[in-house]
Design brief:
By secondary structure, the protein is α+β, with helices and mostly antiparallel strands. It is built from 5 helices and 8 strands; from the N terminus they run αααββααββββββ. The protein has one domain (29-203). It has helices spanning 2-24, 38-47, 64-74, 101-104, 106-115, and strands at residues 91-92, 98-99, 121-124, 135-139, 148-157, 172-178, 183-187, 197-203. It has a 6-stranded antiparallel beta sheet. A two-stranded antiparallel ribbon has the order 1-2. α2 (38-47) packs across α3 (64-74). The longest helix is centred in the first third of the chain and has 23 residues, at 2-24. The radius of gyration is 19 Å and the shape is globular.
Length: 205
């Protein structure tokens, strides 16, 4: 009887300890600051632009935000949990898989970025103010919420072209990678219409 009672007491305690350990690894304070590694972020974006990293879930044709989050993580941006639904940004692929809405949904991703405006991210009015590892959030004209994310990979010659009225391959421009319809090093404005809303986000952590 005594052993059974001890087990009943210890099991919830052990579970609570494991739960705290799993989340505490992702905790950062709002004032934390570091150095975002843009080289690593771009290298990851190029490596997985046309593929899927099996460490993470694959959302197939809705994978753009998941991919963007992976890129920021590869750049060393710390995950955030236990703040609020709007502020959190994390994924746990271990023994208890979980993730924030912002990790894989474009509208929540944009909300997360805006919640940390001036601390981890900063909006700008032009894609030409962005660098490799920064993000562009799009809201297609037929959508009521942000619906797509592109990863900026910096200046260079374009390697793909979607719309025929986009400058030819090899044009030196700000380039972007994306998932969903996978693209690697397309000109940032390719396949975007004038009626699509855009948010240009710089990572400043």
């Amino acid at each position: 009887m005594k052993e059974s009672r001890i087990h009943k007491i210890l099991c919830p305690v052990l579970f609570a300890v494991l739960l705290f350990t799993a989340f505490s690894e992702r905790l950062v304070t709002p004032t934390a600051a570091g150095s975002y590694n843009r080289t690593n972020a771009v290298a990851y974006a190029d490596q997985w632009a046309k593929g899927r990293n099996g460490t993470y879930p694959n959302f197939v044709e809705n994978d753009c935000t998941n991919f963007a989050s992976q890129v920021m993580s590869a750049g060393g941006l710390p995950m955030i949990s236990l703040q609020s639904e709007a502020k959190d940004w994390f994924i746990n692929t271990g023994w208890w898989p979980s993730r924030s809405k912002s990790w894989s949904a474009a509208d929540w991703f944009n909300t997360h970025l805006s919640q940390w405006q001036g601390g981890r991210y900063q909006t700008t009015n032009s894609a030409y103010n962005l660098q490799g590892g920064d993000m562009m959030v799009l809201q297609w004209s037929n959508s009521t919420v942000p619906s797509h994310v592109r990863v900026i990979v910096g200046w260079g010659p374009s390697q793909e072209r979607v719309w025929s009225n986009t400058p030819p391959l090899g044009t030196n421009e700000i380039l972007a990678n994306q998932h969903s319809t996978d693209r690697k090093r397309i000109i940032w404005y390719d396949a975007i219409s004038n009626t699509d809303l855009r948010w240009y986000w710089r990572v400043i952590w």
